[in-house]
Amino acid sequence: MNSRQTSRSRAGRPDRSASAEKSPLAPEHLAQRPLEVPPAGEIPEIPVLSPTRHPFLYRKRLGTFDRRGRHGDLVRLVLQDGEPFGYGLFNPRSEITVRLLTTQPDPPGESWWRERIADAVAFRRDVLKLDEQTNAYRLVHAEGDGLPGVVVDRLGDVLSVEVFSLGSFQRVDALLKLLTAAAGVEDYVVRCGPQTLDQEGFSAEPFGSSGLRPTSIIEEQGVRFRIDHQAGHKTGFFCDQRDNRRRLSELTSGRTVLDACCYTGGFALYAAVRGEAAEVTGVDLDESAIETAKGNANLNQAKMRFVHADAFAYLRDMLRNERRYGVIVLDPPKFIRNREEHETGRQKYFDLNRLAMQLVEPGGWLLTCTCSGLLPVREFQQTVAAAVPPGRTARIVDRTGAAADHPIAANCLETEYLQALWVRLD
């Protein structure tokens, strides 16, 4: 692909999974909009029957829709007595019918968006001082930064944007101008979230800036990674595990390490490069991810082994072969994407952890993670505890989550999604 041929160069294809049979919104509903506020008399008005501080206003909380309201419109929200409640982005196709932007009396125009973005960037640079340790981090964490429906990762000189709501997608061109200016970069890639068709009623091809290169190299705490902007999952790199990767590397010196769902090699590379592990193996079912992981190993001049295999099958093979590891990492893809998948997903977490625990040598460590936000913290702990094999004892030494550039909004606890348990096997 020559990304300079068009200002909207292709960057892979969206995930069209179980919801592909649903009819998406017509293309005219995806037209880009400015951030300026329409004249007061042209802003549709929607009553809020059940007020909440939560930024998601579901259909059941709202009264009759203003007939002027169109998909993606900025709407004015009022209480039943006519008192103003705030402003949000409207999508009648979604159960999250309004994504609340502000409860202030003034409508959010371009200056409002600019201030939110500036605050998000300053938090990463001035408070967390992330530029001193990496050039890859979460720049905007949706509701965690008061910007519903959009996440932005800075990956070197590229902004990787994932959009989850129709209203945010309609404004992404205008947002990109503010984001690139605030971050001091020119290139970007934009993808829709994997379930926007099912949840928001729209689908759109990814696109990138005219100067977007297919790949770029980032460095995180001394470890280098090549990012594929065309084929990577989500934003292309999991910045959320940065602190956990560093902490794991403090446990791996002289040990044999297995990263059972390694993707492009994050934990495995840290164990080899920073952790001075004696032996490192990474396993993943995604063949392209394994090839990228091998390239990342070469990039760091690290000697390690990567295997294209299903993690469950590989762990069973190692159990039959009576292999043991000093450290095992489980960071699988999301097993629970909706409430219907809860029980089958929980069982997968149990099975995966039961297999891994049997392979950890006495005194060894298991780092087990879930990114299934629908699995409560307590239930994940109970699932892992129940997976301890007969005849062994285990201690959950600590529980961590995403790095600090993924803040949790006090009015939207769903912004906490990543759980990591540090388990010592005796």
Could you explain how this protein is built, in words?
The chain is an alpha/beta fold and 426 residues long. The protein has 3 domains: 3-26 and 110-214, Transcription Regulator spoIIAA, CATH 3.30.750; 37-102, Archaeosine Trna-guanine Transglycosylase, Chain: A, domain 4 (Roll); 238-425, Rossmann fold, CATH 3.40.50. Helices cover 25% and strands 26% of the residues. It is built from 10 helices and 19 strands. The strands form 4 sheets. Strands 15-14-13-16-17-19-18 form a 7-stranded mixed sheet, with helices on both faces. Strands 1-3-4-5-2 form a 5-stranded mixed sheet. Strand 14, helix 7 and strand 15 (305-308) form a beta-alpha-beta unit. The radius of gyration is 23 Å and the shape is globular. The chain starts with 44 loop residues before the first strand and ends with a strand. Residues 1-20 have low confidence and may be disordered.
Strand content: 25-35%
Number of domains: 3
Number of contiguous helices: 10
Strand order of the largest sheet: 15-14-13-16-17-19-18
CATH superfamily of the largest domain: Vaccinia Virus protein VP39
Termini separation: 52 Å
Assign the structural class, choosing from mainly alpha, mainly beta, alpha/beta, alpha+beta, or little secondary structure. alpha/beta
- CATH-derived topology of the largest domain: Rossmann fold
The number of strands is 19
In CATH, the architecture of the largest domain is: 3-Layer(aba) Sandwich
Which H/E pattern describes the elements? EEEEEHEEEHHEHEEEHEHEHEHEHEHEE
**Which runs of at least 5 residues are low in confidence (pLDDT < 50)?**
1-20
**Average pLDDT:** 92
Main β-sheet: number of strands, strand sense, barrel status? 7 strands, mixed
Write down the overall geometry.
globular
